[in-house]
Give the backbone structure.
Amino acid sequence: MTMRFASIAALLALAACAVPPAPPPGPPAPAAVLTPQAPMVFPPKPTPPPPEPVPPAVVVLPPPAQPLPAPLAPPPPPTLVPAELVGRPRTDVVALLGGPDQARNEAGAEVILYQGDSCVLFVFLYEPQVGGTHRVEHVEVGPRGRDLSRDASCLAGLLQRAAAG
């Protein structure tokens, strides 16, 4: 009996797990019928006003640059002729021509020497009889080498050398 009971319980358990059968198919569902409808009419969008014209940009340019002035040439050295040195004290000669290249004393006189590129300038200074400082009494310009230069060009070269430094 127990076996019978166990067999029935197993069958009942299996039957409870079974899925119910699907219903038989019915007639097909009617297809949806589309009927034409009048198109939807939307009111027209208002046209936006045209954009306001933008004034052209104004570009302010600086005034045209003025051309740079041509560089100034160095001023020409002062001109001097040997006779203009006569009567001046030694300090004036040194202020004009710079320090001498050589200086020597000879029998109450001082001789200062300037050597240019193409000449030699001798300046003779003597002490005045009534005291004071030595003053130029005589000037000589001699050629240097074989180039015989003029007095004024010799002094111009010495003045230019003194101005340069």
User: Anything to note?
Assistant: Residues 2-17 form the longest helix (16 residues). Strands lie at 102-106, 109-115, 119-126, 135-143. The longest strand covers residues 135-143. The mean pLDDT is 77.
